[in-house]
Each structure stands twice: as structure tokens, then as C-alpha cells.
Amino acid sequence: MLRSSKAEASRLMLGWFAMAHPSAQAEYSYAGEAESPDGKAYVIDVKNGDGFAARLFIDEQSRLHLRSLDQHMARLIDDLSRGRQESVQDIRSEIKILTRTIAALALGSFGVSLAWPLITSICLVGGFGLRILIANRPRSAPA
Description:
The chain is α+β, with helices and mostly antiparallel strands. It has a domain at 2-60. Helices cover 63% and strands 18% of the residues. The chain is built from three helices and three strands. A hairpin with a 5-residue loop joins strand 2 (39-47) and strand 3 (53-59). Helix 2 packs parallel to helix 3 (130-136). The longest helix has 67 residues, at 60-126.
């Protein structure tokens, strides 16, 4: 009963979304072309190891629409990736500036002996600028 329900759900999904249910673990293969009332159609065989088999027919107009969607999705994903990288770089730059500003203020106000623990605790929260301060920390406090 469950197997037939999954097969029926996969057939419906093939018609609606051009993909079988993910739990079906279907394999897709190009089977060739066929004539349809609307003209030429591309035939896709869909099978899995449980005996599920179906054929998906895609006419030219649907194929062009799917291709257009695929191209737009690829552009969106590329833009998101590029934007994410730029955002991360901007945030890192801002944290570096903030860390240097806090370090300069702390050193000017408290002196080296009291400033270092304050700077360290602030940088542990900030995270990114910690490497800069550790490399430039004073080796010994003046007496």
C-alpha cells in the first residue's frame, strides 16, 4: 500500500514539478523524441530500484520555459554568492577598523598595563580582529 502511494505521489509530482518524490530516489534518462499533438516532445524515462517507472513528455514550449527558469535561477544563485562574499569582506573590514579604534582608545585612556585585558576581552567577542592584536600586543608592561 505504501509503495503504491509513493509511486502515485511520484507520478503526480512528475506532472506538476517535472521531478519524482525525493524518497523514490528516481533516476532520469533521456529516451529520445516523440510526436505529440502540439509538435515534437522530448521523452524522459524515470525509474528507480523499487520497480517505479514512468515517462515524462516535455513539449518545446515547456522546455523553453524550464530552460528560462533554470537560467534565471543560475543567475540568482551567482548573484547571491557574489553578494555574500562582498558582505563578509565588508563586515571583516568594519570589525578590523572597530578593533583598532577600541585598541587606540584603550591604550590612550588606561595605559598599556590595564588596556591589554580590556582589549583582549573585547576582541574575543569580535573575533576577527583578535589575530591583529595578538600579533601587536605589548611584550611587557612598563613599570
